[in-house]
Amino acid sequence: MASRFFEGAAHAAAYAKFRPQPPTSLGDQIMGFLKEKYEGPVMAAADVGCGSGQSTQILAPHFASVTGLDISEAQTSEAIKLNSRANVFFKTSGAEKLPFPDNSLQLITAGQACHWFDLPQFYKEADRVLVPGGVLALYGYMFPYAVHENLTEKLFEIIDHMYKSELNGYVHQGSKEVYLEQYGGEKYKLIYDEQLEVRDDTHFKDKMATVAELTGYITTWSGYQNFKSKNGDAAAQKILDDFQNRIMTTLNVTTSPEDTEICLRFKYFLLMGRKPPSQD
What we know:
This protein has about 280 residues and is an alpha/beta fold. It has 10 helices and 9 strands.
């Protein structure tokens, strides 16, 4: 059974506000991989576990129709509210029973999401709905690096400490499989022949953000939300305040967290597999 998180309306709104949109280069590589072997029209794609829709939007320029799916109605409601593209649609649906006919999609993506799925069932469903030669692409991103001339590593250590120490015991295994393992375990091996699979770790996305927004990003972590639900609002706010104070002290600036901008660099990893062409 799939895990269910990110379902509260406030959490969905924070996810939409603070999570990054994937880099254009990542979408371009996925499309290049698809078009290497698939010669038909690229009509339809699905983004599974779409959250508030950031990952869905990068597919819109390439397909006649793109559908974002998420098990959380709060997330799909947020995605619908933010959507401005006529060819992008959102539905509330789990990953283990996809609402598409057999052989109907050229591409299925899952961005920062598949670690919550029942992967064997998801892989089975993806294979069912992909056309021969279609592509399944899974990707995620690491903790952001606060790119700074002299302080990048010190700032990263604060983020790393928040995850590994302050939230120790509250982080779900699925989250560890993203941030600590980058989908490197055997369970993430796709169902297609190894010759039809590709892995790439070169993409990144830079996003200008304030220190207050970096702190807001921490609130989107499932481990933080788990800490908050078990320890209460006051305790959760304290670890956020401590985190923000450590960042500001390290930067040694006189501006407020709301007015102090830093460049956050999110490094991505990408796994792609191609459904074998029809043997007919």
